[in-house]
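User: Quick sanity check before I run a bigger batch. Here is a single chain. Can you write out its predicted 3D structure?
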Amino acid sequence: MAERRPATYAVTLPGGLAAEDGRVLRLARLREISGREEEWLSGSVGEPAALLATGLLGACLDELEGERGGPDLARRLLVGDRDFLMLQLRRLTLGPRVAAVYGCPACSAQMDVDFSLDDVAVEPRPQAPAYSLTVEQEHGCPRELRFRLPTGADQEAVLGLAPEEAADALVARCLLGEQPDALTPEQRTILDAAMERRAPEADLELDLSCPECGQGFTASFDPTTFFLSEMRVSGRFLLREVHSLALYYHWSEAEILSLTRARRRAYLALLNEATRRE
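Assistant: Done. Predicted structure follows.
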């Protein structure tokens, strides 16, 4: 079987990569996940989501306005843009419908929740290389803070730290020419809010009501962690699928793993139909 060149799809990043020449690179070409990435994910159980997102986007992000894809490009992307791309990978791989299970915080009952990725709010926020923020000091003189927004590389750099330590380390990496411990609590709160306002997001807040106890609550949907969890579960069937196609079509493992999930499943459906007729 001759290896097919995977199709790519154009997507526009909500934030974008601020280039040195002043451009903001937002138009990306993304390809579907193939069996190679599924196999890699199935063997990466326990790895942090930030590392898995870098590996997956490094493989499936073909290019960004002339910049070739790869792990280095994936690490340079803003966290919100990475979540957006993972959302698009999920749509390409499994479709727009999501079936999730959430636990009630009051009684711990499990409930099934169904929604569409079309409900995920994505607000365009084109980026700049750095931002300035003026805050007041105790003696009344204004103070200017310069900062950038966190990237995948920043996420990876703070892995293993406790949540509060990770938040401080992230701000330390993004605050330009200053140290976080030089900020007052009020200045730090203002800085955190300013970073959040400028950061691109692919977020969905679900308003849920427990069918058991009637408790209402809000749950957030994290597209990256959810999609990675889905793919790890589905990866358990990959070996069986490769075996079936290799046995019937006599293709090599490498040829089969080069197929997208949709293409592989289409051949399996045809194989099942053919064997039922025999």
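The two ends are 24 Å apart (CA to CA).

User: Great, the batch can go ahead then.
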